[in-house]
User: Fold this.
Amino acid sequence: MKQAIKQHYEAGDDRRRQIASAARKLIAEKGFEGLRTREIADAVGINVATMHYHVPNKEALIVLIAESLGEELEADRAAMRRDGPPLELFEAELENYGQRLQKRPETMKVFSELMQRAGRDETIRRIMTPFADQWHNRFTEIFEQGIKTGDFRPGLDPVAAASIAMGAAIHHRHKPKQEFAALKSELVNAFRKH
Assistant:
């Protein structure tokens, strides 16, 4: 009996992942304004009643989307290089972001939509803010280490530099790959010790 129950829950988790994936694709295409329950259910191959069994309302759906995106971002963070010269780590962080923009632009569009919504929705803010904070903290740590090792210029404010790097990278999320490469080069030149 326990095995049958476990399989039911796994199927439920799989279905929720399918729902989150379909919803994320719609958000990437149409934004939150274009998010329709019927379209999500159709994309997953279920009826609306079944979808509401797994996700009872739009707020729960948005939380599911945010959680699924958070899991993906966390997996990316776990795979990132954590040791080495600070200048190389800084370049690797920017490179990883640039690759995500190229390989998974829909993920970045959904992230952007969720961060905008986080300004109006406390639940989404609680889910999404830690991911932005982790990235900011990672940049801050890299700058702090780099100042100590002499990779970055003395007098550099690590927190402000992290904000500048993040802001510039996020601003370039819709730009061509070549422009992001130029941005990366300029950021490295702006912060490194000459």
In short: Confidence is low (pLDDT under 50) at residues 1-10. The chain has two domains: 1-56, 65-194.
